[in-house]
Predict the structure.
Amino acid sequence: MWKGNLTCKHSSFIIIFFLILCSANSIDIKRSEFPHGFLFGAATSSYQIEGAYLEDGKGLSNWDFFCRIKGSIANGDSGDIAEDHYHRYMEDIEILHSLGVNAYRFSISWSRVLPRGKFGGVNQEGILFYNKIIDNLLVRGIEPFVTIHHFDYPQELEDRYGGWLSPRMQEDYVHFAEICFQSYGDRVRYWCSINEPNLFAEFAYERGTYPPSHCSPPFGNCSAGNSDIEPLIVVHNMLLAHAKAVKLYRDRFKSEQSGVVGIVVHSFMYKPLTDDKWDMEAADRALAFNTAWILDPLVFGDYPPEMRRYHGNELPKFASEERMLLRDSIDFIGINHYGTLYAKDCIYSCCICNDSSCNKGSDRAIRGFVYTTAERDGVPIGEPTGLPRFFIVPQGMEEIVEYAKKRYLNKPMFVTENGYSSPQNQVDDYHHDVKRIYYLDSYLAFLARAMRNGADVRGYFIWTLMDDFEWSNGYSVRFGIYHVDPHSLNRTPKLSATWFRNFLSNCSINHVESCNSISLMNKDVPMPQSE
Ligand code: NOJ
């Protein structure tokens, strides 16, 4: 087990690297610039780290199944072993504790707890596993911040009725959520219902790169699917599933457990490609078709007017009682923010995708008739990272938070994910990951600016604690602040882990001598108030 003692004094070597890197930007963010009780943590998800894919009664998940289809995942990788967190969870909790976080976001594997969904019973060993995690976090003063569903679900639900394409999935999800509330709600105060419905719908049903791999041209060539319609149906079912689970929580559990439930949205920021008014409108549309697609229904009870305007009957309609159920069904907004893209109008101009980072299908309603790209006149919007559409644009953090603040009347927000993946084969990333430090530090600085401007943000989670299974990219893309040796699975802190530890102890990057340890007790963490 790694037991390194990270202190401010040991950070001088970071500072040398770091000052060179960011002297031009003179970024120097400190924990003390965030309110007392602000949650600072790291985030992970079950399939990406647990492994133990059929152990102790766990059933086959959609990802277990998908990874076995040749060609679906880079290098034929899978999450069968992943980071072996199932067996090493105590070591990982010790690592979190040594970092000094006061919160940890993780997800519950649906197929570990309910191997066959509603078609079978509860797997008590699965329940026990998360009980051990929650209890061990709490003993160390770390708040469990639990995602109920993060992309993985029992394959049987896919085989029987087509998973999220079917409204039957709503009841299966509510059943799973109920088991989670019943089993863990006495100790868990923060729940994320579903992780990134928008990104999941896009990757699984528009591009076909996530299971069940549905798509149609020009988005991709899959054996089944309709990229113009299916993502809309999937999100529709997910939104209703969320709202039903929240009703259940508020009716049956909230008075005793007094927790809060939010949803997590994948939130790119979009900037107009030119200062043409149509491109400005296109940037607004891109935001509406990405972020507001999920959040408008859960705050106001219906899809964004921008979507209604451009979609025909393919955009499903909510019945009036469904609108009532949906309205005001989140206590907080979870923002996963990584990067910013340019947006160009495709209603009044012809859009041809001609750079590697642009998405196909820009001339379609499902994309809001917007072409998004990371390049303007051949110049990238920011530094590239390990993923083709994630460029480093720190001010995007302030802008996306400001967007959510304005559109949703400053509902409480958490940055549930933010992180950096190094371009592939960059060995430096194993230890001297100065770019990651620059990324995290500068995004945090812009988050602090948004908060000084009144945004009600209550917490921030780094994606991710350790290098893990990055979905269709397998292990080739690394986001971790800990390196994991692919053979021994030993965890080693990267410089960014040291930086985070120092930051959490209120070390300033430019003034090491000003390091003052501050301690945040669990009881100090404020609960977002739901109306
Ligand atoms: C968002 C997803 O929630 C997470 O699973 C993924 O690994 C990161 N983004 C990075 O792509």
Observations:
- Confidence is low (pLDDT under 50) at residues 1-12, 19-26, 516-531.
- Residues 45, 48, 195-196, 336, 417, 463, 470, 479 surround 1-deoxynojirimycin (CB under 6 Å).
- Residues 264 and 334 are 4 Å apart (CA to CA).
- DSSP finds 16 helices and 17 strands in the chain.
